[in-house]
Amino acid sequence: MKDNPFSLWVYLSQSPLLWLTVTLLVYAATDAVSLATRRHPLANPVLHAMWIIGAFLLLTGTSYTSYFAGAQFVHFLLGPATVALAVPLYENRKRVVTSIVPMLVALLAGSITAVVSVVLLAELAGLPREVVLSLAPKSVTAGVAMGIAESLHADPSLAAVAVILTGIMGAIIVTPLMNRTGVSDYRARGFAAGLAAHGIGTARAFQVDEIAGVFSGIAMSLNALVTSFLVPLAVTLLVR
Amino acid sequence: MLASLGLILLCQLIGEVVVRGLGLPLPGPVLGLLLLLMLLLARDRFALLMRGPLRDDGVETASKGLLAHLSLLFVPAGVGVVQKLDLLASHGIAIILVLALSVVVTLLATVLTFRLVSRLLKQRDAR
């Protein structure tokens, strides 16, 4: 114990180990709370893990860059998890094939609504042009949205934040909203969740119903495709 | 387990290579998804493919394990909100309202279109 405790902290806060551990443990705790409340929408584990870890970083004066050096190992798995969606899709292929027409029409309606509504509302709210551009791809998964934002010379990290906020709000609101519309078809409900709220909506859909999860995963993948084409077009047409 | 994870990564890798190579405007993992799906379908047709991770639900079990923790994977990007606190302080309420309204409208447009088309199709089938 020759060193003072501060130098131990400096060492730990710079090593990936600490922040990887914090990410897993905080999430394990918020997920346990979510389970204990029988998956209540407001107990969304991503939302609560986010502010707890964020507050911890601010209190300890840790930069997001050093945090991400550890957390990137978790972040990396987003790609393989997208590939893994092939399995539920494969296992439910008969049901998916019979729903192909409603899926494609809903995809078109939903992806156009997602982009056009956010651009128009953001303009109406008088947000600066750069913010409007970063919000436009908010309904697709983080990696894709950051790519779209980059190609528009907008802010990719703001795009990522908009994506996560959208996903969390979608996951919180989807079940009560759908119960209110009286739509009991879990194919349609799941499809809407994945289209509007990407992976966080899909994670939520899998919690509610397996078929909803499958259709949500399909919507998320297809919407990533369509939105990549749609955002540049919508931006030239709608943004001042 | 390891071979199954390896197969998933390989699908993603091929997806990334094709997307970058051809300059396609879609994400590599989405192409990887299509590739894994085709592999699973091909396995049912050709017994030759039924080995390694494609045998005994190997890749299925690994994939379900990954998907069981899908929410966790968004936490690192979400914590990025700490970098945007100044922007959120000046425009936060407007941004949150805009995103919330848009997500509600999108959910409704999608679910109602799906239901409408699916109902129209059933009516046609019934006739």
Quick structural overview:
Chain A has 13 helices and no strands. With 240 residues, chain A is mainly alpha-helical. Chain B has 127 residues and is mostly helical.
Please explain how this structure is put together:
The complex is a heterodimer of chains A (240) and B (127). Chain A is mainly α. Chain A is built from 13 helices and no strands. Chain A has helices at residues 5-14, 16-36, 45-60, 64-76, 78-84, 86-91, 93-98, 100-124, 129-135, 142-151, 156-181, 186-208, 210-238. In chain A, helix 2 (16-36) packs across helix 4, helix 8 packs antiparallel against helix 9 (129-135) and helix 11 (156-181) packs across helix 12. Chain B is mainly alpha-helical and 127 residues long. Chain B is built from five helices and no strands. Chain B has helices at residues 2-22, 28-45, 58-67, 75-79, 85-126. In chain B, helix 1 (2-22) packs across helix 2 and helix 1 crosses helix 3 (58-67). Chain B is extended and about 60 Å long.
